[in-house]
């Protein structure tokens, strides 16, 4: 059984003037068909996929020997170490965390029977908060901990800083060959992490082993690449995950946009954003285990579609497209994602969803079958004899109803069960929808130039050489104003 997508509450027949009408669809269809044709063309061309960062669409087709090789490394690590510490941020972290929470047992680290043969899994390097890293290092045994550092660029401050600390920790307490306890997942050719790998391996081939990241895959689209070792270590069935993603690719290749779940999802949101000012995208799984998947989607949507400029397409000499920023006018648009979870956030954000500004579209994720169920014992009470699963589904339906009565557009992704197959399909659905949304807005969905601003400022203050003079000038000329009169 595969995922279902219920778009009823996106239309005017459900939420009246706040929904999409058939006229809206007819009006947008020619643009959507053009967008679909363009995406199809780019996806079909290997050179374009690599150059424009769309190779993620091919990740579920990875060869069996690749999966087998990664599974072998995972087995070797699991046999020797009790803990695996992953260091990474953004796309080098969120997909792993989402998989961990969705597909592994809750309280995985706490209870050995839940982990089976897997080691405990920890994530760090995704922040500069010293408290979490120091607490972890104080309590983990370095001799029993394997470290996986993930950074495509190899240059990200948070991950780099954490690695230096973790190395010092390993060096002090583990033996001199501590590099054998580190594996790097990074660009196959460039970046300081790759350089480090080469330097370490020239001294000891077993030190700083590395897994390459495929070319043409940006961080937030790369869970099916950089996440594989984590999936294998956590005992998640990679083959099933790829099967689910492949099935979703087939469904999302349907040229009839109204039958293509990812394209229809993007199109309806696009119309609601453009015509009805629905600028906030609330993703609300009714499942605790899918909350991190909603967090993963925040990065995917925000970095892919929140852009300053439209895209300008030029052809290079080989007939491959070049996507440039069209600086002739500001775009400065993009839906803002928010993640919430049912039922806990029914007691927080839901009030605003129902009665606050009608500027949101809620996407529910509804799970049909949980891995377990709990029946409430007793007799005579309203809840007696009811199961948690039944109540969860009722709460989701009730939330949908509460939104519809207040003319709040929403849609539901129905997930038969949270399995590797369905989760692979879910991720791939969101990736296809995001790529298509980028096409509809005519923006480059596969870069993230806005992330550079804070990095440049930090590098400047830290005295990093080689910052472009224009950037240095801008920082010097526009210092932050800290007028004491407004600091109370
Ligand atoms: O989507 C992206 O490419 C980014 O958000 C990256 O994932 C993030 O900045 C981390 O980068 P790196 O893997 O190079 O450390």
Task: Give your account of this protein's structure.
With 488 residues, this protein is of the alpha/beta class. It has 3 domains: 4-52 and 239-441, Glucose-6-phosphate isomerase like protein, domain 1 (Rossmann fold, 3-Layer(aba) Sandwich), CATH 3.40.50; 56-238, Rossmann fold (3-Layer(aba) Sandwich), CATH 3.40.50; 451-486, no CATH class. Helices cover 46% and strands 14% of the residues. It is built from 19 helices and 12 strands. The protein has helices spanning 12-15, 22-44, 46-52, 64-80, 94-103, 112-115, 130-139, 157-173, 192-203, 223-226, 228-233, 238-251, 261-276, 291-305, 350-355, 388-405, 420-441, 452-462, 469-477, and strands spanning 4-6, 83-87, 120-124, 145-151, 182-186, 209-212, 280-286, 310-315, 321-326, 336-339, 360-369, 410-417. The chain has a 5-stranded mixed sheet with strand order 1-12-11-7-10. A 5-stranded parallel sheet has the order 3-2-4-5-6, covered by helices on one side. Helix 5 runs antiparallel to helix 14 and helix 12 (238-251) runs parallel beside helix 17 (420-441). It is globular. The chain binds 5-phosphoarabinonic acid. 5-phosphoarabinonic acid is lined by residues 89-92, 151-153, 156, 159, 218-220, 303, 448, 451.
């Amino acid at each position: 059984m595969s995922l279902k997508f219920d778009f009823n509450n996106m239309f005017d027949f459900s939420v009246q003037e706040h929904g999409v009408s058939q006229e809206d669809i007819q009006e947008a269809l020619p643009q959507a068909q053009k967008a679909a044709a363009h995406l199809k063309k780019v996806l079909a061309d290997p050179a374009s996929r690599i150059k424009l960062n769309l190779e993620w669409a091919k990740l579920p087709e990875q060869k069996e020997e690749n999966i087998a090789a990664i599974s072998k490394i995972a087995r070797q690590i699991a046999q020797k170490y009790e803990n695996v510490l992953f260091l990474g941020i953004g796309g080098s972290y969120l997909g792993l965390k989402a998989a961990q929470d969705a597909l592994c047992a809750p309280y995985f680290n706490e209870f050995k029977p839940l982990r089976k043969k897997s080691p405990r899994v920890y994530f760090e390097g995704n922040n500069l908060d010293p408290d979490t890293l120091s607490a972890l290092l104080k309590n983990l045994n370095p001799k029993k901990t394997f470290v996986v550092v993930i950074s495509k660029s190899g240059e990200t401050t948070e991950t780099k800083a954490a690695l230096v600390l973790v190395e010092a920790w390993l060096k002090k307490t583990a033996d001199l060959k501590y590099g054998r306890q580190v594996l790097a997942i990074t660009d196959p050719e460039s970046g300081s992490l790759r350089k480090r790998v080469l330097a370490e391996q020239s001294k000891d081939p077993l030190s700083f082993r590395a897994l390459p990241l495929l070319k043409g895959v940006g961080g937030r689209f790369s869970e099916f690449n950089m996440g594989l070792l984590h999936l294998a270590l956590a005992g998640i069935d990679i083959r099933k995950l790829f099967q689910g993603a492949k099935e979703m690719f087939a469904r999302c290749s349907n040229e009839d946009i109204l039958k293509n779940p990812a394209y229809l999802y993007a199109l309806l949101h696009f119309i609601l954003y453009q015509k009805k000012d629905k600028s906030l995208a609330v993703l609300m799984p009714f499942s605790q285990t899918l909350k991190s998947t909603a967090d993963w989607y925040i990065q995917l949507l925000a970095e892919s579609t929140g852009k300053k400029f439209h895209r300008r397409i030029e052809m290079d000499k080989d007939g491959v497209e070049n996507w440039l920023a069209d600086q002739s006018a500001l775009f400065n648009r993009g839906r803002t994602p928010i993640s919430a979870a049912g039922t806990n956030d029914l007691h927080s954000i839901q009030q605003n969803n129902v009665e606050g500004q009608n500027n949101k579209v809620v996407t529910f994720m509804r799970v049909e079958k949980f891995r377990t169920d709990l029946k409430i014992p007793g007799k005579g009470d309203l809840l007696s004899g009811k199961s948690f699963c039944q109540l969860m589904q009722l709460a989701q339906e009730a939330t949908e109803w509460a939104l519809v009565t207040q003319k709040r557009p929403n849609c539901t992704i129905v997930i038969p069960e949270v399995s590797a197959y369905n989760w692979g399909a879910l991720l791939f659905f969101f990736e296809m929808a995001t790529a298509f949304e980028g096409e509809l807005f005519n923006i480059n969905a596969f870069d993230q130039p806005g992330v550079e601003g804070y990095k440049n400022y930090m590098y400047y203050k830290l005295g990093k050489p080689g910052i472009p003079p224009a950037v240095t000038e801008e920082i010097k000329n526009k210092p932050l104003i800290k007028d004491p009169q407004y600091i109370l």
